Amino acid sequence: MITYATQAEQAAALGERLRALRLERNLHQDALAARAGVALNAVKNLESGRGTIRTLVAVLRALGRDTWLDALAPLPTINPLALPKAGRPRQRARASRGTAG
């Protein structure tokens, strides 16, 4: 796993990955911008590590990599051990034994 010293380094690395993906698809920045529906400067900013979430989402969708977003914030799974034993939601908390409450 790669560790970065600063957030700026991490953002720059993400920008480099996006640039590499764009070049792999043989797209110019202006063509990607048109496909994503964003300004050319927005793509340039994103590839240099300075961009907005909205631009990132649009560019990833245009590159066919919107599944990357699922990796950023996966849906939490339900832990079966955390479910109540009776199958009904709890109505109130119970004080632990030995303490008044």
Q: How many DSSP-defined strands?
A: 0
Distance between the termini: 46 Å
Strand content: under 5%
For this structure, the CATH topology of the domain at 7-73 is 434 Repressor (Amino-terminal Domain)
Number of H/I helices: 5
CATH class of the domain at 7-73: Mainly Alpha
Task: Please state the oligomeric state of the protein chains shown.
Answer: single chain
State the helical fraction.
40-55%
What are the secondary-structure elements, in order, as H or E? HHHHH
Largest sheet: none
Spatial extent as radius of gyration: 22 Å
Low-confidence stretches: none
Which second-level CATH architecture of the domain at 7-73 applies? Orthogonal Bundle
Write a concise keyword list for the protein shown above.
49% helix; single chain; mainly alpha; 101 residues; 434 Repressor (Amino-terminal Domain); 5 helices
Molecular structure report:
This protein is mainly α and 101 residues long. The protein has a domain at 7-73: 434 Repressor (Amino-terminal Domain). Helices cover 49% and strands 0% of the residues. The protein is elongated, with a radius of gyration of 22 Å.
Question: What's this model, at a glance?
Answer:
This protein has 101 residues and is mainly α. It has helices at 7-24, 29-36, 40-47, 53-62, 68-72.
Helix-strand layout with pairing:
Elements: H1 7-24, H2 29-36, H3 40-47, H4 53-62, H5 68-72
Helix pairs in contact: 2-3, 2-4
